[in-house]
Amino acid sequence: MDKLLAVLFIILLFFIPVLLKQPPEVLKTLEDKKEESCPVYITVAGMDKPILLEEYVVGVVSAEMPATFHSEALKAQAIAARTYALRTTDGGKKEIAADVSAQVFYNKSKRKERWGKEFKKNEKKIQNAVQATAGDVVVYNDEMITAMFFSTSNGKTETAENYSGNDISYLETVDSPGEKEVAPKVERKTEMTLAKWNKALGTNWNADMFRSLKLIRNQTGRVQKAETKGFESTGREMRELLGLASTDFNIAFDLTNNIVHVTTTGYGHGVGMSQYGAEAYAKKGWKAEKILSHYYSGTALKKFKLPETECLKSP
């Protein structure tokens, strides 16, 4: 009997550690399970039903940034897109547009159409970038920021105050070098007839008005104000009316042919994170967190969680 008890004791000593040594996924805490049961959904304009936040972020990164970009640039874009969406929708409560009025979103069928044979490779790369940053958002003083971003800078980003008149601490001008090495086109040249120019602006310019034109630039090199005889406009208004690539522009008038020549540097409004700037920094070895803290001054990363009271409202 004593021998039998001894054998049973040895067996128990062997098996108890094995039973206790479970993989991490089996030993998840109740808090982990609560987080998993409280997903965030985003309602995208034009879609039949809300989609999971991270699925939405994949669609935005796919539409807003080339899949060929460095993984750290893609991660930075994923975090910026997630932050922008959560702030804009108030944590998923409001609808968000799927175009440039908010941020562009491509569903899976659109991504397949866009990428063709490269779909599987590109999809995996972007999925990996989104999954690696899942839940990460950019905060300033512990509150989510308005994470504005744009394509290409002129070497500096624009301030929120210059762009909209609102001074926002984390949207100040910062250097964004190296974009000419990674962007296909930083400088663009366009031309239009004088008639088209006047139609776009709703004016009646003549040669004398071009001669007296003054482009008043701000500290980032962009046109803050344009003035000539009987005409005054902000650089932002002129960019929007004329369909220019940026507010860093120069204007020349061909008197002989009545043609207006416009040269622009950069692409987009210039506020927040430059996407090609992020790519340039990523190629220098910067991680996504460093890229974001550079373009959004004084910010940090934080994990987003829905308040417990909101979990019941998810679809």
UniProtKB/TrEMBL annotation:
<dbReference type="GO" id="GO:0030288">
    <property type="term" value="C:outer membrane-bounded periplasmic space"/>
</dbReference>
<protein>
    <submittedName>
        <fullName>Amidase enhancer</fullName>
    </submittedName>
</protein>
<dbReference type="InterPro" id="IPR013693">
    <property type="entry name" value="SpoIID/LytB_N"/>
</dbReference>
<dbReference type="Pfam" id="PF08486">
    <property type="entry name" value="SpoIID"/>
</dbReference>
<feature type="domain" description="Sporulation stage II protein D amidase enhancer LytB N-terminal">
    <location>
        <begin position="52"/>
        <end position="140"/>
    </location>
</feature>
<dbReference type="InterPro" id="IPR013486">
    <property type="entry name" value="SpoIID/LytB"/>
</dbReference>
<dbReference type="GO" id="GO:0030435">
    <property type="term" value="P:sporulation resulting in formation of a cellular spore"/>
</dbReference>
<dbReference type="InterPro" id="IPR014225">
    <property type="entry name" value="Spore_II_D_firmicutes"/>
</dbReference>
<dbReference type="InterPro" id="IPR051922">
    <property type="entry name" value="Bact_Sporulation_Assoc"/>
</dbReference>
